Amino acid sequence: MEPVESEARALVLLSGGLDSAVTLYWAVSRGWEVATIEFEYYLRPERERRACRSLREHAGIRNSIVVPLDFIREVSDLPDEVVLNTALRLSPEGYIPSRNLFFYALAAHYAELGGMRYIIGGHNHTDSESFPDASGEFFDHLNALIKLGMWSHEKVRGQVILPLIEMDKIQVIRLGHALRVPFELTWSCYHNAEVPCGTCESCLERRDAFAKAGVPGLSH
């Protein structure tokens, strides 16, 4: 990965969760001109939308892109006659085949249009344990493709950067605390409700990480 510049335009992938919120505030703290991009996938929780909106407003983000992707569905939301690969019966909760190929290709599209130097994702070190398209190796290859496929790359030099990729969730929370991220505005639950379920994998991970980080905040 090339060194980051002190002045640049950046596009942050925003989901409303802890990692993307910390990534957003990390980018803002660098003084960059920051925009966000969100993806309207199938059955996206309304609370996730509200979390993104609240985080954008709190961070003073004026430029936001929302991309409709209703055909993007978790394996668990697809009928059996579509999922012919029986190995996917053991896939982790929330798994979407090739999700980050879709998301980052679209982010690169909008980044090139906007002359944005950085496409910033909030993947942490442990994400790749469940999701193979969240690893540093995956993004190294993706950046090589972006360099080959972006017509204006010589001028814009667009690339994906992952500021949290060497951190676990506890370290992410501590960084967010230092950056004064409003954790109370974030949403981690996989389900669509007014309050978190407290039992899905994401809720359990959040609760455990807040407890171990020793940081005040909504641990659900």
Describe this structure in words.
- The protein is α/β, with parallel strands linked by helices and 220 residues long.
- It has one domain: HUPs (Rossmann fold, 3-Layer(aba) Sandwich), CATH 3.40.50.620.
- It contains 8 helices and 5 strands, in the order E-H-E-H-E-H-E-H-H-H-E-H-H.
- Strands 3-2-1-4-5 form a 5-stranded parallel β-sheet, with helices on both faces.
- The termini are far apart.
- 34% of the residues are buried.
Helix content: 25-40%
Class inferred from helices and paired strands: alpha/beta
* CATH architecture term: 3-Layer(aba) Sandwich
Order of helices and strands: EHEHEHEHHHEHH
Strand fraction band? 5-15%
Whole-number total of structural domains = 1
Low-pLDDT runs: none
The level-1 CATH class: Alpha Beta
Features:
globular; Rossmann fold; alpha/beta
Describe, in short, the structure shown.
The chain is 39% helix and 12% strand.
